[in-house]
Design goal:
Length: about 70
Amino acid sequence: MPKAFLRIENCQPERCDRGICQARKHCPVKAIFQEEPHEVPFLSAGMCNGCAKCIEACPLKAISLN
Ligand code: SF4
Ligand code: SF4
């Protein structure tokens, strides 16, 4: 099964809604973690089910499926 992969070099939280990761908000299994607004999130591939909702939600296309 493909897993989501975050390219941190493409992620710019300051360009998301008040620094809050939009991909995290849309992940149904809470596989994306962002401790504080404006921090680059962490994506747990082990928890990911490959649904691709985060890919649609990220405005900068920083996430892809591997
Ligand atoms: S939505 Fe995309 S650009 Fe914004 S913080 Fe999340 S991964 Fe980064
Ligand atoms: S592909 Fe789905 S399960 Fe995996 S991190 Fe993205 S939203 Fe979450």
